[in-house]
């Protein structure tokens, strides 16, 4: 679950963009990327803990890289989809906001640092949703 509306809209644009970008690959018989479940699970767990700060596991390369690298590659790969519907400027603006803010993981880490309470980490998405 993501309580940040900007992220929800951005993810929607990226999923639609990837579908648009990948359909020609399917039509030409290009095989899909071969990501192994353990690397996807590890990448997802790290993303949840670190967000865009520090390093992440790049499932495509199987190595640790700055977290923004795969996110920027995803934006590039998906860009033709939002561009075709006139949503590319919005997607880029939303991605820039998330990049600047650090996303939900950064907000939750900040909430925890204030008082050191895990209840603040859980409450943060609730407060974000209520404020929207």
Describe the structure.
It is a single chain. The protein has 7 helices and 2 strands, in the order H-H-E-E-H-H-H-H-H. The protein has 132 residues and is mainly alpha-helical. The protein has a two-stranded antiparallel sheet. A hairpin with a 4-residue loop joins strand 1 and strand 2. The longest helix is centred in the first third of the chain and has 23 residues, at 5-27. The radius of gyration is 16 Å and the shape is globular. The two termini are 15 Å apart. 16% of the residues are buried. The model has no long low-confidence stretch (mean pLDDT 83).
Reconstruct the topology from this structure.
Blueprint: H1 5-27, H2 37-50, E1 55-58, E2 63-66, H3 68-78, H4 80-85, H5 88-101, H6 103-115, H7 118-131
Antiparallel strand pairs: 1-2
Give the gist of this structure.
This protein is mostly helical and 132 residues long. 72% of the residues lie in helices and 6% in strands.
Shape: globular
H/I helix tally:
7
How many strands appear in the DSSP assignment? 2
> Which spans of ≥5 residues are poorly predicted at pLDDT below 50?
none
The percent range for helix content is over 70%
How would you write the strand order of the largest sheet? 1-2
Radius of gyration: 16 Å
Report the biggest beta sheet as strand number plus sense, adding barrel if it closes.
2 strands, antiparallel
Q: Beta-sheet strand percentage?
A: 5-15%
Q: H/E element string?
A: HHEEHHHHH
Note the gap between the termini. Answer: 15 Å
Mean pLDDT: 83
What is the oligomer described by this structure?
A: single chain
SS-based class? mainly alpha
């Amino acid at each position: 679950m993501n309580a940040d509306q900007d992220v929800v809209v951005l993810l929607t644009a990226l999923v639609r963009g990837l579908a648009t970008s990948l359909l020609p690959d399917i039509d030409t018989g290009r095989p899909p990327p071969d990501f192994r479940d353990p690397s996807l699970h590890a990448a997802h767990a790290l993303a949840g803990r670190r967000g865009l700060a520090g390093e992440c596991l790049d499932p495509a390369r199987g190595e640790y890289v700055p977290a923004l690298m795969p996110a920027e590659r995803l934006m590039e790969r998906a860009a033709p989809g939002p561009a075709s519907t006139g949503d590319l400027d919005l997607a880029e603006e939303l991605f820039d906001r998330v990049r600047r803010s650090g996303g939900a993981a950064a907000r939750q880490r900040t909430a925890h640092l204030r008082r050191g309470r895990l209840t603040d980490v859980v409450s943060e998405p609730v407060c974000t949703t209520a404020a929207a």
